[in-house]
Design brief:
The chain is of the alpha/beta class. The chain has one domain: 3-Layer(aba) Sandwich (Rossmann fold), CATH 3.40.50. The chain contains 6 helices and 13 strands. It binds flavin-adenine dinucleotide (FAD).
Amino acid sequence: MKILVALKQVPDTETKIKIHPEGTALDLSDVKWVTSPYDEYALEEAMRLKESQGATVSALAVGDDRVKDVLRNALALGADEALHVSTSEKCEDPFVVATYVANAVRDRGFDLLLFGNKGSGGDHAAVGPMVAELLGIAQANVVVKLTLDQGRFFAERQVESGLEVVEGKLPAVITTQKGLNDPRYPNLKGIMAAKKKEIISIPLTESISPALQTMKLAFPPPRAEGRQLAGTPQEQAQALLAALQNEAKIF
Ligand SMILES: Cc1cc2nc3c(=O)[nH]c(=O)nc-3n(C[C@H](O)[C@H](O)[C@H](O)COP(=O)(O)OP(=O)(O)OC[C@H]3O[C@@H](n4cnc5c(N)ncnc54)[C@H](O)[C@@H]3O)c2cc1C
């Protein structure tokens, strides 16, 4: 079985995000880059399937040379192959990324294509489903449990207030949700071995124009400062009740 894991490189969630003065892009200086957290579940699931069913795992990232770091991390965790779709063009449209991924994988015979359900930061939740459509294959999204058997997948999807169980034919796209597994960390041996492994460069076969353009980025309005209630516990409870009634107008 051949498994693909698509990896997006994103700013670490602890990075203090700044908006570029022009207001339509982030200021990416001083950013620490990591693998998007949802993609870590995808990579872990691929590793578990490799261990239990003998699959080969290919990691793929679209972007400039900087994204090679997420590919090295995937190799350190046990991926067999790293594919780099190399482009440094400005790109804010998930359809462009999806087209580049679909073109890169179309003739590589993957049985299972794993994506994060959304890329941290962009949050479009679009690339995986678009790749499935472009390739004409099945898809199951926000998956929290995955089983493969005799050319079929069985997936539990997290839906509002419950679970949905779906089944379909491989090849298929699965997008991963928190709870699918607990991602592992690379060990030193894996990190050292990954440094020597080749990253295969896949040239773009076509360059497509984005249909989406970011017009504005803004932080949410600042939250009002909290205040401490003084007095005895009874006085505090009365003051809280008064504030909820008169200021917050909750009841
Ligand atoms: C060359 C390049 C330049 C970019 N320039 C900008 C920019 O100027 N401004 C800006 O705001 N954004 C930029 N981006 C980010 C780009 O807009 C997003 O990657 C894309 O729109 C997907 O958005 P998302 O994370 O919301 O997708 P989602 O659909 O939420 O992502 C879902 C999943 O798709 C996969 N995926 C997403 N992106 C990639 C990728 N690059 N490689 C492999 N798998 C992927 C991952 O598995 C991810 O979990 C750039 C990306 C590239 C590749």
